[in-house]
Amino acid sequence: GLFAGTLVRCGEYHKIKNRPGCREAFAAAKDIHLVVTSMGDMQDEHALFRIWCNDCAKEWTPSWKDEAVADIQYRPYGANGFLRDSKSDLRAVTLFELDDLVALAGRKNRHVILIARQCGLCEPRRTRARALLPILKNPHMRVFSRLVLDSPTAYELLQAA
User: What pTM was estimated for this model as a whole?
Assistant: First the structure.
């Protein structure tokens, strides 16, 4: 397990990683062969990361707010790259950074499965196509070795190509 609070200040993150219950999880990360993860879209009002950012807006405005297109594991990315936090930003505690997922996905006998499904609450259903485009267009952002998506998202991506 990863025994940490959900949110921490970026300037304190290194301390969290060295606490009991976290230190062991981070040490074991090198032995993980399979990661299954998903994503959200900052334009989707139901995306948990967007809700979290909006909810925290009274106490914090992220340094990357205007650049964020989407997130994977509650870590933001923009049209051309992964977004970097300032020390005062809040962030989710994650075992892997987005750069780590790119490296892991590129290794032999390691797998990162990214699930990109439509929003289940939007009407009409919002796809993740817009949020996927930066990852598909920029090889340095390829956070997956396998991509799982629904037919409407695949169709929308093919139309955008």
Answer: 0.90
